[in-house]
Specification:
Homeodomain-like_sf, rod-shaped, about 60 residues, coiled coil, Transposase, about 85% helix
């Protein structure tokens, strides 16, 4: 059924994590997942700041005229 495949996956994951099999360790995969999420959030924040600075620059320009 799926039990043999699940066990094989666990064994391979353990081999990778212990360094006996090449691959990305669980710890590295988790760190990568967190960094990608942080990167997405920073990109969103950057876009918001760009929009806000454009808005306020236009407001300042309008008040100078």
């Amino acid at each position: 059924i799926g039990t043999a495949q699940t066990l094989l996956t666990w064994v391979r994951r353990d081999q990778i994590d212990s360094g006996t099999r090449p691959g990305v360790t669980s710890q590295m995969a988790e760190e990568l997942r967190k960094l990608r999420a942080e990167n997405r959030e920073l990109k969103r924040a950057n876009e918001i700041l760009k929009s806000a600075s454009t808005f306020f620059a236009a407001e300042l320009d309008r008040h100078k005229r």
